[in-house]
Amino acid sequence: MEGIVVKSTGSWIIVRMQDGSRLECKLKGQFRLQNIKHTNPVAIGDKVNVEHLPGDSHGMITQISTRENYIIRKATKLSKVSHIIAANLDHAYLVATLAQPRTSNGFIDRFLVTAAAYYIPASIIFNKIDLYGQEQVEALDELGNIYENAGYRCYRTSAIRGDGTGLIRELLKGKVSLFSGHSGAGKSALIKAIDPSLNPRIGMLSAMHQKGMHTTTFAEMYELADSGFIVDTPGIKEFGLIDFEKTEIHRCFPEMESLLPFCQYKNCSHTHEPGCAVKEGVESGSVSVLRYNSYLSILNDS
């Protein structure tokens, strides 16, 4: 039988079967040994083959299909090991905020770079706009222009008031989409506003630090009433990158990749070389200083 992994708690893997039913499954031991590069040998969104265990209502995952794509981050405590957030995605959305808690542009860029590296289209949802004062609205206008000019679509939403939720609902139809971001960015509340039939856990902010408190313990895929699936992920504090070649990082910045043919050197790193079109773009303002600084930061960390 074939199905899609919709939740993994460590002990049990929940598989949505083709008839829509859910089956609790175990993972065959061989897979745990084959994927030592990752903390999780099976990920949300994986397409799997399942066999029923004799005399048991549970199943055994016997085969994991080749992934079309996947998005990873550096494992929290194991710097050289990666964690697969989700696989076989049509689109990845970063849910960001400029209020309670603020999402840094560095975090945004690392998410976008990772999505680009694994060929996953990505967009940014600026959430909680009902909380923005005039200064934050102006900052959002500036950020939105930077990312739109770089080639990314940006959306503005409020889970409380419903701003933008109808548009996001239309975008998700018939697709497998990922919502990621910091704890407290409002991912689960936004999912609930988009599809009231769903019931993801919605958390509160720490009053002392104005940071999100973890409520989504495990990533989970939800089936949307209007067709399509959405993956809600646990809040991520940092988006540590892994397995990146320095020479490939600039290709994950669309506005820089488009300028590479105009650089004096074909292997230009956009750092010290003369005749660099990217550095000229930074000086002229056609390439954002914020984005260029993020590029340098990622380059130095690789």
Main traits of this protein?
OB fold (Dihydrolipoamide Acetyltransferase, E2P); Ribonucleotide Reductase Protein R1, domain 1; five-stranded mixed beta barrel; 9 helices; about 25% helix; six-stranded mixed β-sheet; 13 strands; about 300 residues; Rossmann fold; alpha/beta
Please write the string of helix (H) and strand (E) elements.
Answer: EEEHEEEEEHEHEHEHEEHHHH
Low-confidence stretches: 203-216
CATH class category of the largest domain: Alpha Beta
CATH architecture label of the largest domain: 3-Layer(aba) Sandwich
* Domain count: 3
Count of helical regions: 9
Helix percentage:
25-40%
Nearest-integer average pLDDT: 87
User: What is the radius of gyration computed over CA atoms, rounded to a whole number of angstroms?
Assistant: 20 Å
| The named CATH superfamily of the largest domain | P-loop containing nucleotide triphosphate hydrolases
Number of strands: 13
- SS content category: alpha/beta
Strands across the major sheet, in which order? 10-9-8-11-13-12
> How far is it from the N-terminal to the C-terminal residue, by CA?
42 Å
CATH domain fold name of the largest domain: Rossmann fold
Write the layout of secondary structure elements.
Layout: E1 2-8, E2 13-17, E3 22-27, H1 29-34, E4 47-52, E5 59-64, E6 70-74, E7 82-87, E8 91-96, H2 105-117, E9 122-126, H3 134-150, E10 154-156, H4 165-172, E11 176-180, H5 187-194, E12 220-223, E13 229-232, H6 246-249, H7 254-257, H8 277-284, H9 289-301
Parallel strand pairs: 3-5, 8-9, 8-11, 9-10, 11-13
Antiparallel strand pairs: 1-2, 1-4, 2-3, 4-5, 6-7, 12-13
